């Protein structure tokens, strides 16, 4: 029985700053029925505060504490372990880490840095890794979709640094099981009672199932037809949109 829902955000609730048809109303309905929700994202071009502000601006009835981003999880890890990070991240995300000591780095954080993925920055990260810094990555997403185009995400750059320095990154965002478990732990339900809805078959769907959750792939956002095979073999649901995903999940049960 499904008792709580994790929503991926981009490509599931909205695309290019426009809500998916019916998504705003769906969240409102779930809110009224007191289904616990978390909005989980590897997004690395904005802080959790701006993710919340953007969703609110689009009309989504959510609470700040329901937004669970990978950068926030990375920051918590840095604080727990005493990491002083070199941040190879998007300029818009810098405020999330501004209160961490970033002198004499003993860690390298890599998120989707966009234009800052230049030779000088990547080479500095490489040098720190060769000197023993730990590599913290946001996820292995290969690409995301924006303005109708697939665009390189952080995964390929993390893998390049791993290859160059012969190290293994610690991945903090989806599809890492600990990320899903951290999101679920605040819900007071068992992982198998949670449905994860996402448009990324590897990070959202297979990742969630590997962490013991149920999952549904939606045919919006970055979805490609060839993703269905992987979703089916992982025993995931498949739906045309987030609205249909929730309907399917609850129809199966009641
Ligand atoms: Mg997505």
From TrEMBL:
<comment type="function">
    <text>Phosphatase that hydrolyzes imidodiphosphate, 3-phosphohistidine and 6-phospholysine. Has broad substrate specificity and can also hydrolyze inorganic diphosphate, but with lower efficiency.</text>
</comment>
<feature type="domain" description="STAS">
    <location>
        <begin position="1"/>
        <end position="60"/>
    </location>
</feature>
<dbReference type="GO" id="GO:0046872">
    <property type="term" value="F:metal ion binding"/>
</dbReference>
<dbReference type="InterPro" id="IPR002645">
    <property type="entry name" value="STAS_dom"/>
</dbReference>
<dbReference type="Pfam" id="PF13344">
    <property type="entry name" value="Hydrolase_6"/>
</dbReference>
<dbReference type="InterPro" id="IPR023214">
    <property type="entry name" value="HAD_sf"/>
</dbReference>
<keyword id="KW-0963">Cytoplasm</keyword>
<protein>
    <recommendedName>
        <fullName>Phospholysine phosphohistidine inorganic pyrophosphate phosphatase</fullName>
        <ecNumber>3.6.1.1</ecNumber>
    </recommendedName>
</protein>
<dbReference type="InterPro" id="IPR036412">
    <property type="entry name" value="HAD-like_sf"/>
</dbReference>
<dbReference type="InterPro" id="IPR006439">
    <property type="entry name" value="HAD-SF_hydro_IA"/>
</dbReference>
<keyword id="KW-0460">Magnesium</keyword>
<dbReference type="InterPro" id="IPR006355">
    <property type="entry name" value="LHPP/HDHD2"/>
</dbReference>
<keyword id="KW-0479">Metal-binding</keyword>
<dbReference type="GO" id="GO:0004427">
    <property type="term" value="F:inorganic diphosphate phosphatase activity"/>
</dbReference>
<dbReference type="InterPro" id="IPR006357">
    <property type="entry name" value="HAD-SF_hydro_IIA"/>
</dbReference>
<dbReference type="Pfam" id="PF13242">
    <property type="entry name" value="Hydrolase_like"/>
</dbReference>
<dbReference type="GO" id="GO:0016791">
    <property type="term" value="F:phosphatase activity"/>
</dbReference>
<keyword id="KW-0378">Hydrolase</keyword>
<dbReference type="GO" id="GO:0005829">
    <property type="term" value="C:cytosol"/>
</dbReference>
<comment type="similarity">
    <text>Belongs to the HAD-like hydrolase superfamily.</text>
</comment>
């Amino acid at each position: 029985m499904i008792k709580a829902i994790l929503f991926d955000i981009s490509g599931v609730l909205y695309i290019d700053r426009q809500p998916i048809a019916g998504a705003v109303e769906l969240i409102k309905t779930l809110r009224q029925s007191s289904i616990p929700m978390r909005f989980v994202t590897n997004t690395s071009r904005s802080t959790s505060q701006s993710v919340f502000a953007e969703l609110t601006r689009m009309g989504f009835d959510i609470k700040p504490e329901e937004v669970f981003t990978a950068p926030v999880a990375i920051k918590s890890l840095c604080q727990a372990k005493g990491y002083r990070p070199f941040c190879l991240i998007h300029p818009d995300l810098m405020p999330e880490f501004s209160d961490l000591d970033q002198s004499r780095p003993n860690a390298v954080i890599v998120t989707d840095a966009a234009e800052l993925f230049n030779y000088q920055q990547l080479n500095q990260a490489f040098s720190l890794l060769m000197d023993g810094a730990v590599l913290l990555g946001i996820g292995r997403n290969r690409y995301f979709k924006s303005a109708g185009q697939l665009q390189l995400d952080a995964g390929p750059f993390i893998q390049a640094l791993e290859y160059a320095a012969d190290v293994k990154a610690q991945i903090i965002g989806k599809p890492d099981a600990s990320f899903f478990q951290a999101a679920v732990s605040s819900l007071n339900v068992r992982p198998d009672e949670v449905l994860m809805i996402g448009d990324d078959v590897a990070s959202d769907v297979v990742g969630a199932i590997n962490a013991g959750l149920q999952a549904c792939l939606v045919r919006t956002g970055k979805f490609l037809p060839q993703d269905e095979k992987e979703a089916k073999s992982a025993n995931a649901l498949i739906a045309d949109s987030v609205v249909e995903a929730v309907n399917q999940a609850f129809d199966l049960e009641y």
